[in-house]
Request: fold
Amino acid sequence: MSLEHLAGAWKLLGMHLPTGWKVIEPIGWDPNTGLGSDHYNGTGGHFSVPYIVEKDNKRAFLKAIDLTSAMHSPNALMALHAITSAHSFEALLLEICEGEKMDRVVVALESGQLSTGINLQDKAPYLIFELADGDVRRRVQKVNDTLRLSWWLHAMHQIAVGLQQLHSRRIAHQDLKPSNVLAFGNTRDFRVADLGRAICDGTAGPHDDLLFSGDYSYAPPEILYAQIDPDFAMRRLGCDLYLLGSMIFFFATGFGCTQQLVSRLTLAELPPSLRGTCTASYVAAMPVIQHHFTDLLSELKDALDPSVADDLTRAASELCNPDPVIRGHPLDRVKAGNRFSLERYIAIFDRLAKRADLIHRVAI
Reply:
């Protein structure tokens, strides 16, 4: 196998960008063959090829947009339009985030396009981001056991802030998961990454018509049963709340909420989207889901440190409730304000992180 049949995004090694960056290193793949699966997740991303770039002794992450699949598609122009539209939409959202000074969201340092030849497939649109240490999926395993609870509670606090910042502009992330939260430096600096699957209320985007634009292995259960709420906030912001709560399950048990729920369902209870035989509506299926969810919460509480178990189990119960109508903080559901506000959870995670810090200092 060689790079000859691949688009220009795979052939940027050694090239200089007009702004002074030099492409110095591929990340997680062989520059001779294009093979490799251990991609560093600098911002997440679909249809992209990752590199390290360097300028003035500073290193950064470059995400080049791969046009290979489009050029090999039966309808190359349509496929090309889909990929480039997704890239342009993500770049637009990143500009909004930068303009709004969303400090808990990974924003682009710059964007542009390189070309490795004269053909259309030789073009490589790109985005450059600050270089992270990696995503929390991998980083959490390297944290000292004594410090781990404090570490991931600070991560939860900053993830919630990042989502709230996005929601303030009616941007729903839709693909929040451990690999899309990045850790920077040796400090507790965590940011939400990869807006490639996001939905923005009032701004047409490439994923607006999808039932769910994120990773289905993390999707809320109503999505798996194809329940669609026409209201943007209920369908999109409520989904983000679920994904945030699922991060508690991941940090405490190693698996997201949906993964654990699905593993408990029988073939007759699983929807066709999961190769099951259940054709009932989600409303009809919900009692079974709620039953398993109750068991999951009990197991989650047992897995958590006693100092934070009650608060985090309650937060997980509210954020991940299988019934999207009652998802979110109870005090926000009973007033005329934003029922999907994350402000109370931001305060809860901040308080628990500081409590964990104090416990650690006392233990030392």
In short: The chain has two domains: 8-130, 134-363. Residues 17 and 54 are 10 Å apart (CA to CA).
